[in-house]
Amino acid sequence: MSYRYNSVVDLIHKQISAGTLKVGDRLPSIRQLSLLTGFSTVTIHHAYELLESQGYCSARPRSGFYLVRTPLQQMGDFPHDGENSIEPVSIVDFPHALLLSWQKRTLDAFGAPHPSADLFDCADVDRVMCRLLRRRKAIAANSVGGDPELRLQIAKRAAQRGVVTRPQDIVITGSAIQAFNLCLDALTDPGDVVLVESPSYFPALSSIKRRNLRVIEIYSHPVNGIDPDQLEHLVRHNEIRVAVLMVSNHFPTGITYSEDRMKRIVLVAKKNDVTIIANSMLDDITYDSGTDNCLRKFDSGETVLQFSSFECGLSPQYGLGWIVAGKHSQRILAASYLGDYAPNDQRIQQAVAEYLSSRSHDRQLRRIRETLASRMERGLQLLADSLPTGCSVSRPTGGYMCWVRGPQKFTSMTAVLQLHKQNVSILPGSVFSAAARSFENFLALNLSFPWSAENEAKIGRIGDLIAQTVGR
Fold first, then answer.
1. Do 381 and 304 share a domain, yes or no?
2. Residue closest to 198 by CA, chosen among 317, 85, 364, 114
3. Which of 116, 141, 191, 425 is deepest in the core (most CB within 10 A)?
4. pLDDT by residue (tens digit) across 106-151?
5. Positive or negative, the Cα torsion across 172, 175, 178, 184?
6. The sheet that has 427-428: what strands, in order across it?
């Protein structure tokens, strides 16, 4: 969903990019901009407050808002060509200690694979849950596939993004990764070939490995995403059953594919009879008003299955997952039954459904997006100030991760151990590749945590270590 104040923010950014606004300049008055855009003065003021919270401008009493810095430009360049698999590869096991840290959520800040817990306020949905428990509302008899009202609410929200689906074609699961597992169980058999992006959402790689599936990797550029021509070449020369893609607020680069690229990807998959499993876990936490698209929006048939959850947009405590399954819904339900995935959280489903029917969730999403936008921008600025020459940093449109390329001599897995001694955590680039042989000089950073003096100093330590490693 795009809010009007985001259009005002985009307009100011365009004026900065065009050079008509420079540091020290006074921004157009609230009344002037209201007349120019047709938006209310309240909307304009909210946009200026958002720009101020992100550190772009400051308010001066009886004078207005003044530009104090310009948006951070992308650092360095990423290589245009990456490594694609010529033949299927085996997924390498992750370091055991790292997996335990993720499971126990002991990693803080930059090395955590999950967003900061302080982003989520469960007070409203908790009240709904308490009210339901007091009323002892009956469980719907026709709840195969999930609570009917929850499926309806998800369908309504999908429609806001241009995805038209029937509520009965949505399947509720316990989590996003359970939704993904169901898709794999329904659509693949052991030994099948699955295409995945590289870098990729690494928990999905673990699910693929456990099912004895083979993997073809396709390079996902940290600015543009995968190349549709490379995709077509790979699916024509390999017997690929499904492609696992994350095109909106990609994990870990944070970028969103262009509309044209999404359309071309769906067209290639449809032409070659490849089913796309689209990971939409981070679609809700976008802070760029021009990136509210998804693959299923451009699917006129049933080429794209979409899975997501409420883990990052509501709270991990209410992190139910779901699949927009379309014609595959019966296969998904059969896999759910055979795999003993049947949900036993009907009360939570009822609570989330009632919560979604109010405006509370929209307010929550707006707050999360604004907080994340501010924290991400601050983190990117700190990286620009701290990283040595030769580094590149992605420019996320949403989510909470960014992707960093270090100099060629830098090895992120070695840096993990060295930084751990300084109580600093990072995610090494190799864990985002199926064969763990790529991205040795890359790392991912979670920038969703509050910016304390301690966390700001840790960014400096990361920059210092990279500089020392390459002898600069």
1. no
2. 85
3. 425
4. 556 799 889 999 999 999 999 999 998 888 766 665 577 899 999 9
5. positive
6. 392-393, 401-405, 442-446, 427-428
341 and 403 in a single domain? The answer is no
Q: In this structure, what DSSP letter does residue 307 have?
A: E
Who's near 374: CB < 8 A, 6+ residues apart? 53, 54, 55
| Closest CA relative to residue 346, chosen from 168, 192, 181, 129 | 129
* Structural domain span for residue 377: 105-114+365-469
- Name residue 329's amino acid: S
DSSP one-letter string for 153-164? HHHHHHHHTT--
In this prediction the pTM is: 0.81
Pairing of the two strands 392-393 and 214-219: unpaired
Same domain, 125 and 213: yes
The sign one gets for the Cα dihedral 289, 174, 430, 81 is negative
Given a contact cutoff of 8 angstroms between Cβ atoms, the answer to whether 48 and 9 are in contact is no
Segments in 144-299 forming alpha helices (H): 148-160, 176-187, 202-210, 228-237, 259-271
| Domain count within the chain | 3
